[in-house]
Amino acid sequence: MNVADLVRRSAETAPDRLALIAGDRRLTWAELDRAVDTVAAALSGAGLVTGFRVAIALTNSVEFVTAYFGALRAGLVAVPINPASRAEEVAGFLAVTRARVVLTDGASVAAVRQAIRGHDGPLGHDGEAAPLVVPVGIAALAGERTYDEFLAAAASSPAVPPADPETLAALVFTSGSGGTPRTVMLTHRALLAGLDQMAAIEPPPMGTGDVVLGVLPFCHIYGLNGVVGLAARTAGTIVVVSRFDPEHTLDLVAAEKVTNIPAVPPILASWLRCDDLARRLASVRVLVSGAAPLPAGIRRGIQAATGLVVHEGYGLTEAAPVVTSTLCSADPSDPDQPKPGSVGAPLPGVQVRVVDETGADVEVGEPGEVLVRGPNLFSGYWPDATDAPGEDGWFATGDLGYLDEDGDLALVDRQGEVIVVSGFSVYPREVEELIAELEQVAEVAVVAVPDERTGAAVKAYVVPRPGQEVTAEAVLSLCRDRLARFKQPSVVQIVPELPRSVTGRVAKSRLRIAER
User: Fold this and answer.
1) Angle, vertex CA 143, rays to CA 141 and CA 148, nearest 5
2) Which domains does the chain have, with CATH numbers?
3) What is d(CA 35, CA 69) in angstroms, rounded to the nearest whole number?
4) What's the N-to-C CA distance of the chain in angstroms?
5) pLDDT 10s digits, 201-228
6) Under a CB-based contact definition with an 8 Å cutoff, are residues 67 and 54 in contact?
């Protein structure tokens, strides 16, 4: 009933099997289980009790994994934060979740410190102190506690895990259908159900003895449950990649004989530019792409270079995360190939419907809004569990798609306007509101443009105020200072006006069409 129990079970069934490979560091499942115990006891020793939140602003590392499972084992709520986030973003994450402890490393510590120093008000509610900062692998400042000091203060009594599967396990940031940032409440039940559903695929995408490439950010639900969680469930081995470099990562795949690669399209696109791809990926048996649409050219290129079939899936943070996968279906005309344009059939235990504006099921092949139902679904958005699945269990995703005659799903578009850059969501409204702070700006519209490296990129159309001048460099400079790198526009175009619909709203669809 606790996700961290998976680590304990793997330590009991396969104590000497490697759990983590991170550079020169190698931990078995037994060693990882003991490390998780230590972190859980340290969090309890810091005064945290059931339900308190622990922010994990770490790059992919041994410490991320032990902090995540340690928080859960202590009955706490894990709050993964993208370590590339800017200070203002971190301040917002900490304020909304009221985290009591923040684990940070060299990639995030400057933003974490600035967030806490510069935002005393939002981070201290009802007399609460600001979060305790715990730097990992770097020196601590006054008022902080190094990671080693934090572990040394571990409580002597073991943490008591929650007995209720509906206990909150993680708060993960994503977007709603309206494109505004939201905080998804995932219980132990939802995370475990998601893992059970992935494991029920035939043949299983990951099993005992498999070696999975941990290149997806663990702060993202795809990496958190699809890699870290699934490896714990199957006693697999994670090869931890803290920073993606195409050549180095391919060498790592070959050296560690990686068998499973969950990836995003930009990773696969970058590998197509590397030499000797077939030899370096020779150990791989399962290659899956997710988090963003996979261009057909990349799929064909990988298969031509290596013989590997790239499978694709559709998921949501709210679904922990996988909903459909081409691993669950096959094109009857060519069983060895994923069906063109499809993101596959629902996983075992997951139901999918496509409905029209009235909520009625549409005909096969007709587009509509995608609805999902299953035990893997979230409990609503923090803090009030708003917009949870309805009484009948169905959740409206905000995505548009259709089901074909075989029950496979194809996606058409998003009802919202979220831009997915390297698997991370960018909310146009957030970027637009920032750019609009420039006094020379009258209007701004942000849309996605194709990008061979990241799948999509951000483009801003900016209209100057009458009689004033605004430069692209001024806009880019503001965004570099205030936004995470993946959220920053790659292009800023100064235009005299924006296209509008008959109702006077900005017609972003016309801007998107112009960029195709």
Assistant:
1) 70
2) 24-163 (3.40.50.980), 175-414 (3.40.50.12780), 419-514 (3.30.300.30)
3) 9
4) 47
5) 998 999 989 999 999 999 999 999 999 9
6) yes
Burial label for 222, CB within 10 Å (0-12, 13-18, 19+), is buried
Query: What are the distances in angstroms from CA 362 to CA 325, 400, 410?
Result: 21, 12, 14
Q: Give the pair of three-digit tokens for residue 423.
A: 């698997």
pLDDT digits (tens, 9 = 90+) for 258-294: 999 999 888 998 899 899 999 999 999 999 998 877 8
How many degrees, rounded to 5, is the angle at CA 260 between CA 210 and CA 371? 115
User: Which residue bears the tokens 């694709």?
Assistant: 312
Instruction: Give the residue from 435, 449, 462, 452 showing the smallest Cα distance to 490.
Output: 449
- In a 13 Å sphere around the CA of 437, the CA atoms on its Cβ side amount to 13
Q: Which residue has the tokens 């909903």?
A: 323
SS3 letters for 431-498?
HHHHHCCCCCEEEEEEEEEEECCCEEEEEEEEEECCCCCCCHHHHHHHHHHHCCHHHCCCEEEECCCC
Residues 6+ apart with CB under 8 A from 463: 441, 442, 443, 444, 494, 495, 496, 497, 498
The pLDDT confidence band at residue 178, using thresholds 50, 70 and 90, is: very low
C-alpha distances in Å from residue 292, one per residue of 91, 276, 302, 327, 439: 27, 26, 17, 17, 35
Rounded Cα distance between 270 and 293, Å, is 16
Q: Which of 431, 441, 410 is nearest to 482 (CA)?
A: 431
How far is 286 from 326, CA to CA, in rounded Å? 12
* Residue 158 and residue 37 in contact, taking contact as beta carbons nearer than 8 Å: yes
Angstrom distances, CA of residue 510 to CA of 313, 465, 494, 499: 28, 22, 16, 7
